[in-house]
């Protein structure tokens, strides 16, 4: 999900646009809000193809297909405009990650989850086929893992059994690796072709690999016709069922009902712990409230952002995470912890509601806005992630606040941080969320320590911050700076996890709070020298974890400036960042 761009319309028909959901060959898909406040997915056909009769016919056929099929496994049509440009159709919005996104981010699914998904999708195909419709483009990208079960989307090339194909001469239909041999060779697209695509889709879910490899589409299609599907490492019985679905002769493939029987599931897919965790934590696609602080308009209030714990190690002061564990396994732990089974250790919060959209600003121009309340739980830009290597000495436990004049010794995470910066050079870019508290007198900069004019950072970082000379802030005015790598860091390697890329939701490696009101010039900080991560173990003992070198995690780093009133009482007043190549 992305923020709307300047070129995007504010409305499509009666729907108010909120964000971009994605794009396909036919057009752009938006998240919208109906006049009554219902969330909808709106597909708008591209202007450059509106003059092509074949494209318009395909788009109109998709609308009619979605209108005709009323199934628990498809998103219902809400509205459409097919008479004049812009051509669009709106379906109910299904919150959840695609199967492609979930596997790409979290790894291959275990056999038990694959069987349940297999059976559920087979039931969905049987429901669609009962309307005389074949999907013709079933693939991981067109399966949404919804909270109520999987949903089949994108009927852009779906075909009624009595219709003729609209595929242009010489163009292969469907998606390479998921299109049945009879479709590729003879243009035959019956229900058995969907079964082939189902088998290939589950092969991807079970292995995390393209079912017929990657490369030139013609080569992939050749493998689908003449080669063997990749099920290496898959449980034998599941692998045999996948192979049965993708045999070359369509009449030899099992019908959806036979697939369901052979899966022999004994519980609902939504009760599967892996599936449930993926719908809750896979990249945030399912979490709409809280993602759109600036684009959600009146009539659709933002709900709670809803974070879940992802790791609670056992022991008195355990700090090391296990490596090479699929993210779905970590997410299952998250689901158990939400249910109240986790105790002890460091509580590491991972909020998976995705990047916020809207509210971005050009770094360098400090925003002025209403003052947000501060206090534990009141500011929304803090969360611990994976700790670094523990230092031998604990951090002093001073709890000084702004009113007392005592300098807080450090700040500790209280909530997940969703602040994320993207840009082209240090200090030149945008942060995704507005500040929580006005900072009209704060001036700050971020540069490469060795080459201040460099377009990216390669070593150490110089961070300067001060209050303008004519400020009216009363002392003390404590500020701490948090520097966030793009990804969660493995404590054993000081780098992102080998097989996992988890978006960093911590407050970052932070500096000791400084009273800017007591300074007559700017405060200079050097990353990583002046920064560390502060966590508290289950005995209440603060501990320090050193900051990592920037080279350990290339990408867009976020720098957040916090107005500090106490160790657990602070608010985001400014955000910027720097790229690391």
Please tell me about this protein's structure.
The protein is of the alpha+beta class. It folds into 3 domains: 11-93, Phosphorylase Kinase, domain 1 (2-Layer Sandwich); 99-277, Transferase(Phosphotransferase), domain 1; 358-580, no CATH class. The chain has helices spanning 53-68, 99-106, 111-129, 181-186, 191-207, 217-226, 236-245, 256-263, 273-281, 327-338; strands spanning 11-12, 15-23, 27-33, 39-45, 77-81, 88-92, 133-134, 143-146, 149-152, 159-160, 308-311, 348-350, 361-362, 421-425, 428-431, 442-448, 461-467, 478-484, 489-490, 495-496, 509-510, 514-515, 523-527, 532-536, 542-546, 555-566, 569-580. A 6-stranded antiparallel β-sheet has the order 1-2-3-4-6-5, covered by helices on one side. Strand 5 and strand 6 (88-92) form a beta hairpin. Helix 3 packs antiparallel against helix 5, helix 3 (111-129) runs antiparallel to helix 8 and helix 5 (191-207) packs antiparallel against helix 7. The protein starts with 10 loop residues before the first strand and ends with a strand.
Write the layout of secondary structure elements.
Layout lengths: L10 E2 L2 E9 L3 E7 L5 E7 L7 H16 L8 E5 L6 E5 L6 H8 L4 H19 L3 E2 L8 E4 L2 E4 L6 E2 L20 H6 L4 H17 L9 H10 L9 H10 L10 H8 L9 H9 L26 E4 L15 H12 L9 E3 L10 E2 L58 E5 L2 E4 L10 E7 L12 E7 L10 E7 L4 E2 L4 E2 L12 E2 L3 E2 L7 E5 L4 E5 L5 E5 L8 E12 L2 E12 L1
Antiparallel strand pairs: 1-2, 2-3, 3-4, 4-6, 5-6, 7-10, 8-9, 11-12, 13-15, 14-15, 16-17, 17-23, 18-21, 18-22, 18-26, 19-20, 24-25, 26-27
